Amino acid sequence: MWISILGCSGGIGPGNRTTSILIDDDILLDAGSGVGDLQLQQMSRIRHVFISHSHLDHIAFLPFLVDSIFSQIKQPIQVYGLPETIKALRDHIFNWVIWPDFSELPTKDNGVMSFNEVSAGDVITIDQRSITVVPVEHIVPGIGFIVTSENSKHFAFSGDTATNDSLWHALNQLDNLEALMIEAGYPNSMEKLGTLAKHYTPRSLAKDLKKLKHKPHLLISHIKPGLEIQISEDLHQELKDYQLTCIKSGDSLQFD
Fold it and tell me: Is residue 238 a contact partner of residue 202, using CB atoms and an 8 Å limit?
């Protein structure tokens, strides 16, 4: 199983792309601006898109993705999200005002995109991989995902979250956890803002990691542009016992 980090930044700028993770060549976790770096042929292979929550940095390129490969879509692209997320996409994006509703194109009963509501605990099996839906704590309803390969190795993606118990409970049910992509959007000095926006800081993340029985490779994401050095220094101070990487667009890992 290949995991390609198309985007993982908490903002934009040269080299920064917002959240999108490609699993093998057909599954997308979130659809931020990182999707825009794919070739059309790569885009056309994507069959499933899992959306963690409705914020723009996680959905912005879903409309462009479907539009760009419209003529190549033979079977609908399946879009998964919480009921609140699906409603937000329908009401505010695919509403014929901001963007066409591709669930009704080319015809109402033959759209190139299909919406699928999911709930915490749902497991979606795609070929020999599975995606488990995990509730997290954010300012809008949000979920993370556990992706399990055919040889039972696990990659977890927190989405945007702050202090919670649900993510850690779900991860502790696993026999192993190779890698955890988790956010740390603000430095410790901005803890008050992080609390209000429901994003981790290195300090609050370190506190929550005490709930986890595993010691996965931590892939730190959603770092705000301009705060990279400060957040990195805080992370290495708070998480000395962990292997951690502040990931960037273009990074990848493979589970054999």
Answer: yes
